[in-house]
Amino acid sequence: MNWNGLPDTVECLESALKQSYRNYQIILVENGSTDGSYEKILEYFKGHLDCGFLSSSPHKDKIFPLSEKPLDFIECRGQQDSGQRVVLIRNEINQGWSAGFKTGLDFFLKKNDGDYLLVLNNDVVIEADYLGKLVETAVRNPDFGVIGSIAYWYEYPERIMSVGGEFTFADWQLYTDLSDLKRKAEMSFPNEYLVSVLTGCSMFFQKKSFSVVGPTPVYYHFWEDLELYYRLRNAGFGLILNTDARLWHKGGTAENYHQGPTKFSSYYGIRNKFIFAKRNLGILEKSYIYTVFAAKMMIRVFFYRISKEVKQGMLRGVLDGFRGVTGKIDLKN
């Protein structure tokens, strides 16, 4: 999915087009960009876009030589595709990641005859055998819900960003990343193992799982992937981490990753936790979110040294969480 991120999207597409497993189709959702990305993507597909910006990539081995152009693509306007390698779907208005994901998912469920769906963030680069390794895991584990991989930092290719995690309801996040484990035992992971949460930058689903858990939720930003994981696990599907499949994710940068939340992330992170609790949790866990978690957040607002903007996001997140506010909110006011 692209939103005002043409260079990232082109780099991701070039690595996707290099896959050794060839039985796939790319569905690209252009999610209401305002920087002319849609027109430039069409130029790229036709071979008319200057891709000199890729020369600075630290992952040249995964994107060069560039794929032959023009690409076999179609602009989808409701019609069934005719087997083109790439399908381009345009959302006129940006309604967030989850709405863009739903656009691509609806096309996959209704008009694509594939058995599996790999959802990638546009700011990732994948190895040439990435898709093939996920398919192999899927064949070995027919009852899987989602398969994921180890994510490495884009600018530090040997540093692990995420290996998945476990659900928790105790604090800011809904899950804990296995950070200590990944640093202490990077070379001792089994090839595949079960987790509760996978990194949301790459999610490999099987089509039949969506018929069990229903349509993807819409949060605008944050938590939609976590709800899918939670519902799939409760429906009896396993979440599998394949440690042989590797990708590199920008996701900000390693330097600013731990600098703390923004007004945007604090608001949607907190508010959407209430939405998640209301939709999915039992009375005890839900009560914890609406009492202890809410109190913790208010203590941070009034007693922690946090920027004024972040405090505003946190406070409004708690209040809107209690009010049941959903969707996109104007945080400028």
Beta content: 15-25%
Q: How many helical elements?
A: 11
Shape: globular
Mean pLDDT: 88
Nearest-angstrom radius of gyration? 20 Å
Secondary structural class: alpha/beta
SSE topology string? HEHHEEHEEHEEEEHEEHHEHHH
Q: What can be said about the biggest beta sheet?
A: 7 strands, mixed
Please characterize this protein's 3D structure.
The chain has 333 residues and is α/β, with parallel strands linked by helices. Helices cover 39% and strands 19% of the residues. It has helices at 6-16, 37-46, 60-63, 97-111, 130-140, 179-184, 207-213, 224-234, 263-280, 283-303, 308-323; strands spanning 26-31, 73-76, 86-91, 116-120, 124-126, 144-153, 160-162, 165-167, 175-177, 192-194, 202-206, 238-249. Strands 4, 5, 6, 7, 10, 11 and 12 form a 7-stranded mixed beta sheet that branches. The protein has a 3-stranded parallel beta sheet with strand order 1-3-2, sandwiched between helices. Strand 8 and strand 9 (175-177) form a beta hairpin. Helix 9 (263-280) runs parallel beside helix 11 and helix 10 runs antiparallel to helix 11. The two termini are 28 Å apart. Residues 183-187 and 253-258 have low confidence and may be disordered.
